[in-house]
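SAMPLE LOG
Freezer: B-3
Tube label: C17
Construct: single chain, 503 aa
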Amino acid sequence: MTDALATTVQHVPENLPKRIQHFIDGEFVDSLDGDTFDVLDPVSNQNYLKAAAGKRADIDRAVAAARKAFDEGPWPRMLPRERNRILNRIADIVESRDERLAELETFDSGLPITQALGQARRAAENFRFFADLIVAQADDAYKVPGKQVNYVNRKPKGVAGLITPWNTPFMLESWKLAPALAAGCTVVLKPAEFTPLSASLWPEIFREAGVPDGVFNLVNGIGEDAGDALVKHEDVQLISFTGESATGKLIFANAAPTLKALSMELGGKSPAVVFADADLDAAIDSTVFGVFSLNGERCTAGSRILVERPIYDEFVRRYVERAEKIKVGNPHDPATEVGALVHPEHYEKVTGYIEIGKTEATLAAGGGRPEGLESGNYVEPTVFVDVPPTARIFQEEIFGPVVAITPFDSDEEALQLANAVKYGLAAYVWTSNLERAHSFGQRIDAGMVWLNSHNVRDLRTPFGGVKASGLGHEGGYRSLDFYSDQQAMHISLAPVHTPKFGA
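STRUCTURE (predicted):
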């Protein structure tokens, strides 16, 4: 039985707002039609505030402010060092408020407080990283001796529409905001409707750091209203989206008439492949953490574990023992390892998949609500074993603390199983054979592969997936490439010999 924590009294942060407004052109404003939507916390499932519900008219107003700031304001024309200073001030402010940010994020999303604190600090690091990158950035230059010099002139692309998810929302907002602003774009952010609380802190942070009015705009709302209007808007040059693959397909179609640039990080069903020669202790530590951290609500979760037959029984036994000891409970308790799922709708989705799994495979751990936690969106860490590749819990993204473990007998079978789903975001390979690690990892259909490691990422590397897991890559210079236009400039150094048509 999973270890449910004794501390069940809900922590409610002080000075919670009663309502959240949009932030457009430097001002907090309500929706033009006055509409709002309710926001609940995932421990009590009670509504605790109302947020302005943006519609097309509100998006129009925000995009107009961003467009004016881009066309007439100083931000796109600042020297990189000037933007660098402001981005570093943003990072300083975020770092100075990390405990408050984590407290609000935990209350709003159910993420354990220790993990939320790490995400707040990562948000500050994102701004520092891109602040440094725009100062250090170099572009291509080529010389044709005696004839021509060619160089790249990089320019900000325009108004960026940023649509962010409800898992680790503040950090993932920073992951888009930092490179967009570093490149000189102006932005309209549409945060997830389940978790708007931490996003509401960005306006004051940016204002205090010296970001000019109109550069950053925030419109809350339902995806079908505010998000759809942002994607279709003719004055938005690019959309960066993180979310479900089905929504990504819809955005792809709706962005086509205006030929927007798109970067979309979508769903995942990532394999963790454990060979018999792996460091078993390290592999178990990593695969337990990889699927149950962040409440299992992470796109790169290693939610399919493929284990070589000679060690399969021992791996399953030890894995189940660990899963049953995971501490589930009050997200604000520092001892909590798995908190509450973000929303009742998502709770129903995850528990629905668990019921499906019980008809497809063997339930080895969890599968229900932890004892002592009769209310709130709590799910026991759940382990299914002997899962066939045809099972829905093997094929479909659950996005919760649920893992499927499947045996394999050969490298080729392991590769076939790893690639047997529509997704291709991340993969993890555990083996002491270095040649196998590289050759096998390179054959997996995934945008990112970790060898003998959990998800520890260098910010300079590309982030993105293949197949149904995404379109394009961000991270490092690739982020600046996405938010910039690259203009080729050609300079002649000698008389140009042009054919004299019609002479």
